[in-house]
Amino acid sequence: MDYTVQPAASLHGILQLPADKSISHRAAMFAALHQGRSTITNFSEAADPHSTLDCMRELGVEIEEPGNHTLIVHGVGRDGLQTPSGDLDCGNSGTTMRLLSGIIAGSGVSARLTGDESLSVRTMKRIIEPLRAMGAHIEAREDDFAPLNFRRDAELKPLHFPLPIPSAQLKSCVLLAGLFGDGPTEVIETLPSRDHTERLLNLAIEEKEKKRIIRSSRKDVVPGQSYRVPNDFSAAAFWLVAGAIHPEAEISLPGVGLNPTRTGALGILQQMGADMEITNNDHEGAEPVADIRVKSSPLKPVKITGEVVPNCIDEIPILAIAMLFADGVSRVSGAEELRHKETDRLNALAEMLESAGADFEEYKDGFTIKGDPDFRPDPAAFSSFHDHRIAMAAAVLALMGPDSSTVLNGHCTAISYPGFWEDLSLLTN
Ligand code: S3P
């Protein structure tokens, strides 16, 4: 379905954001691996975490959804997963496929993991290689892509694994497989990526020479996962940028997850001069939360380099929109990983910004944008590339136009933010 976006005269309101997608996936998976019952509140209604729920049910885990965003998971423990009768369909969700691969490889259950068109062309080599080194037998299309067929005939071997790329999905996959091994599996992280897995599983972490060594083994008790999932910082980022770039805006976002390994975009927007206030700092389980309020702000250009990219990887498309309205040239480098998301996001941004008439140059690992506080995007029919974050970035851009624009196949926002279009009209009316 295509969505028409009218230019916004103002943006005002308080939004109840969707629950965090990354934490929702993990809450459901880890609750299944816990021996006993977990009650998770504010579980995400989005499509991706529901792909995870479908897969866990296929593996024999009973999950109740009594309503009001609550989930009751009857955890079966590490040895209770059953061989699925059908495929484990991960839909559009890279997190489901990569994290579940670790669980399947570790448990020794034979299963076939499938995904939609986009997920079936995303590389899985990064997880296949370490899982094979641990003893998993995996067949993949072209030895890289889904469907993935898992079988294990040998004992699970612990792995010492320096992360070759700063990916939380890869880190989590190996640690989850490690949870089933007798000896400790060690993942060595040089650049920090989101640490929800370590936090929610309460894994041992050693800091050594600026590296983090995270260990998992069968000796680790998988804790129950009864807590409230924080609201999604990655969803908040769209409104933080919209509020900062729009000349008549004030937006409040209560209860947002502010895990420091996720909030790179907050620091970047602060550096750009965004007028934001953070109040009511608190915790939901192992995760920090707070309320954020943003107001219209003159923005300065910024440079984002590889060390901070893992900390704002999902927010770069919307940060690019902020850069368009900054007074000068902004640059992003070390972000080649964006080419391996739901779509090639560097290419998608190039096409979006070109149709908007922006001064944008794409590189192999990033881009430069010549910003202008008076920039008005040309009205256009923006392609979403069937990528939720590209669709939402295009919608925020369209709010700033002199006339209406269209976001093609804008319904893909439901992958992480089912209420996105309703929230947009709430702010503009
Ligand atoms: C995620 C990790 C990130 C992110 C994705 C969710 C996670 O991917 O882009 O949306 O929940 O672990 P990588 O860690 O592979 O970069």
UniProtKB/TrEMBL annotation:
<feature type="binding site">
    <location>
        <position position="21"/>
    </location>
    <ligand>
        <name>phosphoenolpyruvate</name>
    </ligand>
</feature>
<feature type="binding site">
    <location>
        <position position="314"/>
    </location>
    <ligand>
        <name>3-phosphoshikimate</name>
    </ligand>
</feature>
<feature type="binding site">
    <location>
        <position position="94"/>
    </location>
    <ligand>
        <name>phosphoenolpyruvate</name>
    </ligand>
</feature>
<feature type="binding site">
    <location>
        <position position="345"/>
    </location>
    <ligand>
        <name>phosphoenolpyruvate</name>
    </ligand>
</feature>
<comment type="function">
    <text>Catalyzes the transfer of the enolpyruvyl moiety of phosphoenolpyruvate (PEP) to the 5-hydroxyl of shikimate-3-phosphate (S3P) to produce enolpyruvyl shikimate-3-phosphate and inorganic phosphate.</text>
</comment>
<feature type="binding site">
    <location>
        <position position="169"/>
    </location>
    <ligand>
        <name>3-phosphoshikimate</name>
    </ligand>
</feature>
<feature type="binding site">
    <location>
        <position position="169"/>
    </location>
    <ligand>
        <name>phosphoenolpyruvate</name>
    </ligand>
</feature>
<feature type="domain" description="Enolpyruvate transferase">
    <location>
        <begin position="6"/>
        <end position="424"/>
    </location>
</feature>
<feature type="binding site">
    <location>
        <position position="22"/>
    </location>
    <ligand>
        <name>3-phosphoshikimate</name>
    </ligand>
</feature>
<dbReference type="InterPro" id="IPR036968">
    <property type="entry name" value="Enolpyruvate_Tfrase_sf"/>
</dbReference>
<dbReference type="GO" id="GO:0009423">
    <property type="term" value="P:chorismate biosynthetic process"/>
</dbReference>
<feature type="binding site">
    <location>
        <position position="26"/>
    </location>
    <ligand>
        <name>3-phosphoshikimate</name>
    </ligand>
</feature>
<protein>
    <recommendedName>
        <fullName>3-phosphoshikimate 1-carboxyvinyltransferase</fullName>
        <ecNumber>2.5.1.19</ecNumber>
    </recommendedName>
</protein>
<comment type="pathway">
    <text>Metabolic intermediate biosynthesis; chorismate biosynthesis; chorismate from D-erythrose 4-phosphate and phosphoenolpyruvate: step 6/7.</text>
</comment>
<keyword id="KW-0808">Transferase</keyword>
<dbReference type="InterPro" id="IPR023193">
    <property type="entry name" value="EPSP_synthase_CS"/>
</dbReference>
<dbReference type="GO" id="GO:0008652">
    <property type="term" value="P:amino acid biosynthetic process"/>
</dbReference>
<feature type="binding site">
    <location>
        <position position="389"/>
    </location>
    <ligand>
        <name>phosphoenolpyruvate</name>
    </ligand>
</feature>
<dbReference type="GO" id="GO:0005737">
    <property type="term" value="C:cytoplasm"/>
</dbReference>
<dbReference type="Pfam" id="PF00275">
    <property type="entry name" value="EPSP_synthase"/>
</dbReference>
<feature type="binding site">
    <location>
        <position position="21"/>
    </location>
    <ligand>
        <name>3-phosphoshikimate</name>
    </ligand>
</feature>
<feature type="binding site">
    <location>
        <position position="122"/>
    </location>
    <ligand>
        <name>phosphoenolpyruvate</name>
    </ligand>
</feature>
<dbReference type="InterPro" id="IPR001986">
    <property type="entry name" value="Enolpyruvate_Tfrase_dom"/>
</dbReference>
<feature type="active site" description="Proton acceptor">
    <location>
        <position position="314"/>
    </location>
</feature>
<dbReference type="GO" id="GO:0003866">
    <property type="term" value="F:3-phosphoshikimate 1-carboxyvinyltransferase activity"/>
</dbReference>
<keyword id="KW-0057">Aromatic amino acid biosynthesis</keyword>
<comment type="subunit">
    <text>Monomer.</text>
</comment>
<comment type="similarity">
    <text>Belongs to the EPSP synthase family.</text>
</comment>
<feature type="binding site">
    <location>
        <position position="341"/>
    </location>
    <ligand>
        <name>3-phosphoshikimate</name>
    </ligand>
</feature>
<dbReference type="InterPro" id="IPR013792">
    <property type="entry name" value="RNA3'P_cycl/enolpyr_Trfase_a/b"/>
</dbReference>
<dbReference type="GO" id="GO:0009073">
    <property type="term" value="P:aromatic amino acid family biosynthetic process"/>
</dbReference>
<keyword id="KW-0028">Amino-acid biosynthesis</keyword>
<feature type="binding site">
    <location>
        <position position="167"/>
    </location>
    <ligand>
        <name>3-phosphoshikimate</name>
    </ligand>
</feature>
<dbReference type="InterPro" id="IPR006264">
    <property type="entry name" value="EPSP_synthase"/>
</dbReference>
<keyword id="KW-0963">Cytoplasm</keyword>
